[in-house]
Design brief:
It is found in: Nucleus, Nucleolus. The protein is mainly alpha-helical. Helix content is 63%, strand content 4%. Among the domains are: 2-151, Nucleotidyltransferase, domain 5; 158-268, Helix Hairpins; 281-395, Nop domain (Serum Albumin, Chain A, Domain 1), CATH 1.10.246. The chain has helices spanning 35-41, 53-64, 70-79, 90-100, 108-119, 121-124, 130-148, 158-186, 191-195, 199-209, 226-237, 246-280, 282-288, 290-300, 303-307, 311-315, 320-329, 343-347, 353-373, 380-396, 442-474, 477-498, 512-566, and strands at residues 2-6, 10-16, 42-49, 85-86, 104-105.
Amino acid sequence: MLVLFETPAGFALFKVLDEGKLNKVEDLSKEFLAADSARKVVSLQAFSKFENTAEALEAATKLLESTPSKGLRKFLRAHCDGETLGVADSKLGNAIKEKLKIDCVHNNAVMELLRGVRTQLTELISGLGAQDLAPMSLGLSHSLSRYKLKFSADKVDTMIVQAIGLLDDLDKELNTYAMRIREWYGWHFPELTKIIQDNIQYAKAVKLMGDRANAGKLDFSEILPEEVETEVKEAAVISMGTEINDLDLINIKELCDQVLNLAEYRAQLYDYLKSRMNTVAPNLTALVGELVGARLIAHGGSLLNLAKQPGSTVQILGAEKALFRALKTKHSTPKYGLIYHASLVGQAAPKHKGKISRSLAAKAALAIRCDALGDDQDNSMGLENRAKLEARLRALEGKELGRSAGSAKGKPKIEVYDKDRKKGAGLITPAKTYNPAADSLIGQITNSTALEEQDTVPKKKKKAEAKPALVEEAVDVPAHEEKKEKKKKQKKADREAVLPTNENEPEEEPAPKEKEKKKKKKRQAEDDGENVEVEEKKKKKRKHAEEEEPEVQTKKEKKKKKKKSED
C-alpha cells in the first residue's frame, strides 16, 4: 500500500511496511513519536519536486478543487502500478480512480498515518530541512491567498493614484511657467502673445527667435503654420516692445527649456497612466476615460474602496463641499462631481446632463466592481455599457436610432403631403378664393337705402316704448302692488270664463282675436291711470317748492335788515 503526501516542495509517495499496524488506529500515533520507529512503519518510495512557484501554485489550486494536476498524474502513473493508494481527500481519490484506474483508500487509519508522517517529515525525507520547508510553505500560502482573493501584482492601483496626482501638479507648474515666459518676453515682443495661443509653441518660438529682430531671417515652419509664421514676421517689424540685452534672453531661453522638458515628461507620464489604467481598470477606462477614471480611484483611495461605493456616491464624488452646503442651506444637491468631465456627460445637452450622469454613475459602479473583483481582464463589459448609454443619450435628444437588422423599429413613417391638413389635427377649411363680384357698387347702394328705411321705423317704435318705461320707473312701490292685484283678478276672471258651466254642455271658446283686443284695452287703461297719478304728484311737488321759495326770501330779507340796523 502506498500513501500520497503533499508538501510545499513537491509530492511524496510513502510505502507502508507493516500494514497490520493500520488495524490498530489508537496505537498508530505512538509509532511516530520517534524517527526510528516511524521508519519501521513507512519509508519514502518516490518524490516529485516542484520546479517553480507557479507549478506549486497550480498543483495546490488543483488539489483544493479535488482534481489531480498534470504533474501528479504523470508521477502516479510511473510509481503506482498495481498498488493501492491512500489519500487525504475522498473526492481526489475518486478523480484519480476515474482517470488513472488506481484503487484509492480514504479512512481513519490513512488519516492517522498521514498525521504521523507530517510530524516526522524532515526525518523521513532526506535533504528537506525545517529551515528550507518554512519559507517554502510561507511563499506558497501567500501565492495561494492572492489567487483565492483574485489579487494580482499587476493590479496595484497605488501607482495610478500617484501618477494622476503628479500629472495634476505638472499641469499647474506648466501653466505657471508658461505665463511667466509670456509676461517676461512680452516686454520685448508683446504682439507675440496674441498671435500664438499655445504655450508649448510659444516657448519653442521664443527659444528659436531670441531677439525679435531675428524673426525675419529664421524659418518657423517646423513649429508654426505658414499663416501664423508670416503674421509673426510682420508683427516683429512694427513691434512696440522695449529692447532687452543678451543676459535677459539667456535666462528666458533657460525657462523655455524647463517648460519644454516638463511638457515632454508630462506626455510620457500620461502614456504610463493610460497603460496602467487599461491594465488595472479596463472597463472603467472604456466608460469614462483614463483621466476621469484615475481621478475617481485617487479620490476613493483605492480601486477596492471605490468598488464598495454605490452608484449615487460615485455620481457626486468630488462635489462633497457643494453637497454639504446644499444640505445645510436646504437647497438642491449637486447632480455630478468628477464624472462631469466624462465625454458622455459632455456630449449631452444641459437639460439631459443630470440623467446621463446618473446612468453613467450606475454603469461605472458596476464596471469598478467588475475590475476590482472579477476574473475577466478585458473591457467588453465597459464597451457594451457605453454603447447602451450612447443609445439612451440619442433617445433623450430625440435623434432616430439606427434600424436594427430584421426589424422595422427605426423605419420612419412617410405620409403624403396635404396642404389642407395641419400637424396633429384633421382637415382644415381651404383658403378662400378672390371674389371679383364684390368690387361692384351698384347692388350695394340699393341694398343700403333699403336697410336705412327699415332702420328708421323701429327707431320710432323704440322711442315710443321708452317713454312709458321711464314713467313706470318713477312710480312708487304701492303702484306696483296695485298692478299685481289687478293682474291676479284678471287671471281668475279668465279661468272662470274658460271653465264650462255644466259638464254635459260643450265648451264655448271665445275667439282669440277678441281676447287680444280686450287685453290691450285693459293695459292702456292701466297705463293712463298711472300717468295721471304721476302727473298729480309732480304738480304737488311744484306747488310745495313754490310755497317754500317766498319763505326763504323773507328770511333773507330779515337778516339783511338786522345787519343794517346793527351798522
